[in-house]
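Folding Task

Wanted — backbone structure
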Amino acid sequence: MSMNYAELDEKTRATMLSEFDAEQAGGNPYRSKALSVKGQELFPQLMREAIKNGTEVTLTAAIADASLWEQIEKFMRDGVARERSRDIPKSAERLAMTEFSTWYVRGLARRLMDEGVEKCQVCRGAQPKWEPGDCAKHEGLILDVKDVYANHRARYWPEPGNKVALSIPLAPGCPHVIKRV
């Protein structure tokens, strides 16, 4: 799936990169537990490259190497802990879309605040293959840009997160980003 990032220009990319680097230097950067040790080591550089010159599509290709992933995926079904072999292409696509969108939203929110813009709207970046139920409820909401910026990853990071916070994207696989009103 290819996302539409309406304001993905050099100015937004520079802000995205600045925000990403600040999180990396902050002592507790987010890392997907689905990535292997090698994947966690390489991901920041691959993310930087995507922010500078790519999109979620180029990031997907960069992280699709099986050596970057934990091969077994743990999950819950009907209250029972289970395991299965990880679907690497699907995992790479989901992480790339979620992470690139997270940094796009963070960078665009910072840019809008710097420009004196106070409101933004939650919108779809693309039509998803599947959609988390909570995700769709927020489409079209008009939010304070400062709140979007402040709630960066708040729903899930640092763990356990604040489950009532409205982070955009809301969850892994969420196709939502923000736009100017």
Q: What stands out?
A: Strands lie at 72-77, 80-85, 119-124, 142-144, 176-180. Residues 120 and 143 are 5 Å apart (CA to CA). The two ends are 25 Å apart (CA to CA).
